[in-house]
Design a protein that fits this description.
- The chain contains 4 helices and 9 strands.
- By secondary structure, the protein is an alpha/beta fold.
- The protein has one domain: Rossmann fold (3-Layer(aba) Sandwich).
- The strands form 2 sheets. Strands 4-3-2-5-6-7 form a 6-stranded mixed β-sheet, sandwiched between helices. A 3-stranded antiparallel β-sheet has the order 1-9-8, with helices on one face.
- Helix 2 crosses helix 3.
- It is globular.
- The relative contact order is 0.21.
- The protein binds inosinic acid and magnesium ion (MG).
- Magnesium ion binds next to loops.
Length: 184
């Protein structure tokens, strides 16, 4: 844990502990960037960032890439505040770009039930991309209700509600430099 991590932890009384420190995040994201760079040597993939949670991950991941790429953004909602999924996936903002015949990498903060990604993969597939892969920073595999294959996975985590590094609790705590767990 860095001094910065400890400082954020001290200042947020509703945080229980740090689950993944900023150093661990950075190291793993560099590895993921290297993997993607190796796999896309002959392509200019489009990174589809799922707002809002994945914006921090996208920014760090793309800065670890050694291949030309584009970014675009989509916003979906399945959580109406709080910590429980409503099971309803709504497209709030669609892509600007045309993905026909392009290699797509969906960038997601966390795969929980898998409902969001299942829905997105199905939707984007109807637009005839050349390929679709998924890069997810966190995977709560034990919470899965819809099977989904994560091609580039950062960390597997237990079935706990986490915040920070883009992930929110009621729109707050996205700015934490680490992944933390809230107090019960
Ligand atoms: P899924 O559709 O159940 O897989 O949920 C995926 C979305 O739920 C993620 O993109 C997050 O926005 C949100 N989510 C799931 N688990 C957490 C969590 O522990 N903290 C914050 N957001 C979460
Ligand atoms: Mg999300």
């Amino acid at each position: 844990m860095t001094y910065d991590d400890q400082d954020y932890l001290r200042r947020n009384s509703n945080l229980d502990r740090v689950l993944i420190s900023s150093e661990e995040l950075f190291k793993r994201i560099q590895e993921m960037g290297n993997e993607i760079t190796r796999d896309y040597q002959d392509s200019t993939p489009i990174f589809v960032c799922i707002l809002k949670g994945a914006y921090v991950f996208l920014a760090d991941l793309t800065r670890c890439l050694g291949v030309d790429h584009e970014v675009d953004f989509m916003a979906v909602s399945s959580y109406e505040g709080g910590t429980q999924s409503t099971g309803v996936v709504k497209i709030e903002k669609d892509l600007r770009c045309n993905i026909t015949d392009r290699d797509i990498i969906i960038v997601e903060d966390i795969v929980d039930s898998g409902l969001t990604l299942n829905h997105l993969v199905e939707l984007l597939s109807t637009r005839s991309p050349r390929s679709i892969r998924i890069a997810a920073l966190l995977d709560k595999a034990a919470a899965r209700t819809k099977p989904i294959h994560v091609d580039y996975k950062g960390f597997e985590i237990p079935k706990e509600f986490v915040v920070g590094y883009g992930l929110d609790y009621d729109e707050k705590l996205r700015n934490l430099p680490f992944i933390g767990v809230l107090k019960p």
